[in-house]
Amino acid sequence: MSKRKIAPLRPDDVPSRKQPEPAQRPVPEDDWAADAEDADPPARLLTRSEKREIVTLMRLGAPPLLSFQKVGVTFEDVMLTADEDIRFYSQLQQVHDVLATNVNSAMYKAAMNGSVTAQTQFLRRSKQQPLPEEDHQRRIDSRKLKRLIVRATDQWRKELGIEEEE
């Protein structure tokens, strides 16, 4: 075998490492105004029939966002309503818990039929997730605590004659 000599690189052969400066994009002065016009309308509370329809669709296994879209409400509307209406929040949580239990049951069945992947996933999930009742109670307790703090703060302000900060 013959060895070939490789010619050394000259500075002209090496591409420049200096990056070209990015072109400056002109920013229109009314950019903020355009954003305000395109903004979504503010969230609103759901009606009783909208809440009932969402819960029914989710019980049947429809994904949450698809349920919201079918009823004609936004995610923000649902979250605002869940924050204000503890009963609606509880119904959504119960539906989620039932569907999660169905998934765990199917995974358990597959694991018992010998699926190593299902066995591994089932064991991982059982270690990571708290029992649905414990998690649900913790969430309700934290919401009650927040409301209690807000009420106590408002009461102290009234008693001390302090006006609310904005």
Summarize, please.
This protein has 166 residues and is mostly helical.
Describe the fold and architecture:
- The chain is mainly alpha-helical and 166 residues long.
- The protein has helices spanning 31-38, 48-59, 64-71, 75-84, 86-112, 116-128, 132-160.
- The model has no long low-confidence stretch (mean pLDDT 76).
Give structural attributes.
single chain; 166 residues; 64% helix
Strand content: under 5%
Detail the poorly predicted runs.
none
Q: What's the order of the H and E elements?
A: HHHHHHH
Largest sheet: none
Distance between the termini: 84 Å
Number of strands: 0
Overall geometric form: extended
Indicate the percent of residues in helices. 55-70%
Question: What's the Cα radius of gyration?
Answer: 29 Å
How many separate helices?
A: 7
Query: What is the average per-residue confidence, as pLDDT, rounded to a whole number?
Result: 76
Question: Helix- and strand-based class?
Answer: mainly alpha
List the topology elements.
Layout: H1 31-38, H2 48-59, H3 64-71, H4 75-84, H5 86-112, H6 116-128, H7 132-160
